[in-house]
Amino acid sequence: MIGGGISGLSCASMLHWTGINVRVLDQGYRIGGRCTTRRTLEGEVIADLGAPCFDADVPVFIEQVKRWVDSGVCARWDGAGGAFVGVPTMDAIVDSMAQGIDVRSGCRVERVFRHDRSWVVEVERRDGARVTERCERIVLATHPRESDRLIGEHSNTLSLMLGSVETRCVWVLMMRINDPLEGLPAMVDVGDGSSESDEIIARIIRDDHKPGRSRETDSSTLVIHAREDWSAANRELDRVEAQRVLTQHTRSLLSSMLGHDLDDQRIGDVQVHRWGSAHPVEGLPQRCETDDDARIVVCGDAFGWKGLPLGVQSAWLSGRASAMALIETTG
Ligand SMILES: Cc1cc2nc3c(=O)[nH]c(=O)nc-3n(C[C@H](O)[C@H](O)[C@H](O)COP(=O)(O)OP(=O)(O)OC[C@H]3O[C@@H](n4cnc5c(N)ncnc54)[C@H](O)[C@@H]3O)c2cc1C
Q1: Which CATH number does the domain housing residue 76 bear?
Q2: 193 CA → ligand 1 middle, Å
Q3: pLDDT of residue 331 exceeding 70
Q4: Are 46 and 108 members of one domain?
Q5: Residue 6 Cα, ligand 1 centroid: separation in angstroms?
């Protein structure tokens, strides 16, 4: 399994519990991909950096979410219209999915090639060491461009399909503000495209108002998602400049929303991150895709389910569909 985000772990856990030997390789410092939580080097939580919450609409996913809720790693967030969040942080969900599975973070897959009937996977580890692994089949659960880079030369069909997926970038700002921000809702969409819409910011999320977070009375932790059109137009912006623009803009937006001036002194720690491929623009019609001759399966949030928004739910469903496809073909 290349990729230890929601889709990869959904597939890997189903394979594992069916008795199929699976190893997950992920290039990240931690697993989780776009469902991750930013921490300090000492491990202190800063905020959820990717998906802030998620919905559950499809019965089989609702059942899974119930199991997460029962085991205490997930809760409904009333402040966000009843969407679900990981408890105490979003990455609690991926950690619980990874339990019992051979998962290796800090392992970037550089190249894959065939040797006899097996696949050889070349991996660069975080410590700089290069190792190779052999396997019977490969599941790709990275973003489409990366999956295409890895297997494009081995499967024209998959390459054509993956190459057709466009993704959008999103700048994200994490901010600590020395003010309780009384009256600010838990999650507010300010860039909804209406005439009142903000031209830079899409969404403001009160990270410390999520269930299971520690909340302080005199300060707040916010996560700000920039609009996709603004992020695309400013994709190559220098990080320092992106942080400056987003911080100043958020400060003045909050001041006008709250009706009191938030001066610069109230702005505490600030960090910015650019997700180069935050969201697929349009979903693929199938739930996953296989190339049986090449022994490859591809999954991820870009694989849609009719009418469902693309996100944590579609990623989980796609991972599950790819596990079922593999189980069928391996008997
Ligand atoms: C800012 C933002 C806001 C979002 N908001 C929402 C929301 O409100 N609701 C919702 O449902 N969803 C939301 N999402 C989307 C959601 O996070 C994703 O749909 C979901 O997490 C995707 O999971 P995935 O497994 O398909 O991909 P990813 O999480 O991207 O996982 C891919 C994994 O592959 C690894 N990888 C890549 N290349 C290699 C390589 N060469 N070798 C090894 N590993 C590799 C990466 O490290 C990563 O862990 C949001 C995402 C972002 C970024």
Answers
A1: 3.50.50.60
A2: 25
A3: no
A4: yes
A5: 7
